[in-house]
What does this fold into?
Amino acid sequence: ADISLKHQTVELEKVVVVGYGTLAKRDVTGAVGSVSSEEIKHIPTTNAIEAIKGRVAGVDITSTGYKPGDGVRVRVRGQRSLKASNDPLYVLDGIPMAGGIGDLNPSDIQSIEVLKDASATAIYGSRGANGVVLVTSKKGFDGATRSTYDTYFGFQDITRRVQVFDASGVSKRVFGKS
It folds into this structure.
């Protein structure tokens, strides 16, 4: 028997790193939400967890107070316990963190992945029962020193002027020149 192998080029999909190895993204059966550094860069915030607010389905992020600098509460799999903590497990570059990721600079984050289902428990044990937030930080580069400067700006204007009447019945504009 004369057998020859034919060369076939196959494009690889994104690779997902799990606790016990690496898998192609299509082979991961769990629910994974991901936010890249490009998406994080476009959000003017000093809190890294604010970067995933509204970007990952099934993750509920609420403020714990109304003052600037107050913390946030993150619920990945809902309220699961009355007495124990319901916070997810935060893993920074493969190392579980104590507390949240509020002290990390958002510009130092490469990506944030949220494991939202029971596969997180299979990988990280009971600590992952409330979900797992995987944070990958940016790495340094060889060569010359680089400096970057990021800035944000904004402006505001009245988009809709409201027509009202005063006490004498004369029409005038509110929020604008008459």
